[in-house]
Amino acid sequence: MSKTFDVAKIKKDFPLLERTVHDRPIIYLDSGASSLQPHVVIDAMSHYYATTHANVHRGVYSTAEEATILFERSRQVVGAFLGAVHPAEEIVFTKNTTESINLLANSWGATNLGPGDAVVLSIMEHHANIVPWQMLSARLGFEIRWITVDSEGFLILDDLDALLEGAKLLSITAMSNVLGTINPIRELAARAHAAGALIHVDGAQSVPHLGTNVVADDLDFLSFSGHKVLGPTGIGVLWGRRELLAAMPPFLGGGGMILDVKTDGFLAADPPQRFEAGTPPIAEAIGLSEAIRYIDTIGIDEIRSHELHLTTTALDALAGRFGDSLTVHGPGPGAHRGGVISFTLEGVHAHDMAQILDSVGVCVRPGHHCAKPLMRFLGVPATARASFGLYNDEHDIEVLLEGIDQAAKLFT
Amino acid sequence: MAELEELYREIILDHYRSPRNKGELASPPALRAEGFNPLCGDEVVVTVDVNGGVITDIKIGGQGCSISQSSASMMSASVKGKSVEDAQATIAIFKSLMSVHEAQLEVSDASPEEQPIDLKALGELAALQGVVKFPVRIKCATLSWNTLIQALGDLPS
Ligand SMILES: Cc1ncc(COP(=O)(O)O)c(C=O)c1O
pTM of whole model > 0.90? Predict the structure, then answer.
């Protein structure tokens, strides 16, 4: 089936793109932080609230049953999107990537890690994939080891086998939210397994933009957030291999995660309910599955090639227009990078850059992007980051360049 | 965009390009405090020498955006040589400028109950009033001031 990628048509699916800021059309270049939502997602959620809402897994009345079916069907849609074999048991709904990783650390980590053990991270991780391990390490006394990056922003993997020796887990992002680097996840999984370690992939940046297949890549755990994949906030996913989840204790306790409770203890439910204490994000799960259906109708591969084209165009244009005065922190154009462009312009702080870009309607993010260890390692205090989504086009890049031009003029 | 021009006044850009009192004093004897703006990663180190109740020297270290750097630079110029008491009065006026509602800046039709800010007392610091229209940037402008308050807080009372 051949699909044509019609950006003008896609833009119309996203109501937020109709608004203006400072009397100019909004140019949204912050999908790395959070994506926009198409009508179908917003509609599916309000339709659910207007017609079906009830708590799940409890009632016997019609709407309660319908809500439960919709909620559980969302698990199937998410599972299929990730290539999971047993979605009904392997897809755990959380609040976001951050909560998914905290769940993993406090459940799998707390039962499997202790003094003498090690967890391997990379220096390009988001704080979400650092701090939970640091908190746990302070409690349990295991070691955290770091994979570093080279001057282009690629992982240095020469000494990976030594880092993995005796390690129990490699927890690593599939794509850097600062550099845009796409990491060789399949190779990393193979090398982790060869060393006897498990692999958890932070898919917050990769799942929305690159195809994901947890089986082909031979992963053990994967996390991502709904709000970066055209879905709503308030929902995230932890996928785990069935046998691993089955051996893990609960994270949060409460209703919904038990089989039985007595005065002297409780019996935990099977996964995924075991990890979903309390009323889950029902409307959000429905919104997320609608977002994934929307992506499926366009095609994740088509989205990827569109975004790769935009990234290459933007990198070439930035280099052409601003030369050496503009530094892109991350790899040059090519298939090894995603649509995240972190840059600094000589003499203009990222915060000022973002402010001036806002005045022409362009939304980019300034700062450390929740990756302070990486920023320290690179020796840059802050960058401005433009990141693409399927709804961006070449005109958006032109306005970005116009804004950078204005910043350059104002500050020099 | 007019608001942007108000934000980036020439005097602000001048302090950003050529910051006054840049560096760090030996501490001790200087009082020293560090401030962070986790939002954008700005960091500031304020060191002050206080002798006989007078701020005899002040230096600003760290890095940040034009608003935080120029505000720090102007702050250092405005409190250097002042008594701690006078410096604290300036801090209070500046902080009220940053917490004021935009409308209060239009002094002419301020209602009698609303105390207009004494912009004259602020001298060139008044150039930072454009920041008030950009609520996110207020934290940038006040970072060094809060850090100075922290440093002066170490004074034996
Ligand atoms: C690579 C990566 N990991 C984790 C996160 C955290 O996602 P959330 O804030 O949705 O938990 C982000 C989001 O910025 C990210 O880019």
Answer: yes
